[in-house]
Request: fold
Amino acid sequence: MFELYSNLDLFMKIYWVIAIFSSLIFIVQAIMTFVGGGHDADVDMDADFDTDGGDMPFHIFSFRNMINFLLGFSWTGISLNNAIPNRIVLSLVSVVVGLLFIFLFFIIIKQLMRLSENNSFKIEDSVGKTADVYLAIPAAKSGRGKVMVSVRGTVHELPAITNSEEKIETGAVVRIKQIDHDLLIVEKI
Reply:
């Protein structure tokens, strides 16, 4: 192994050192990610640029992106060494592929972030929605009934009252007007 390495020119020795180092770090990062410890293992510089100003945990200058760049850069240089004899062109192609690795990582992370959706129920999200009366609602806030409302794809059974002078019967459709201490105030449609 050392004999093969010692026969390489300085240019290829540098590519191999970068490839082995970045591959080992990448493997450790991948293992930490799968076991649950990789999300805090990034080292960010002060010159972070948020990609879309949102909640994306992606920074252009991070340790993980440096490793992704070095992986693409080094393995491209090693793989295309015999195909591209000009060292400057080989280096430029390696840089482009390294940048492509960062871009692909960004696309993959962005797609994974779309999968994580917050479906926690907040009663405030039901205001303005229509609901079906499950248990009749007495008139003029004289008692409670229940309605079934769909919020973010899940159906919830919630207590409701009405300001109307008429009782709202079971099966009627109502609109949720406001909330008063976890109690829906509804009106018949």
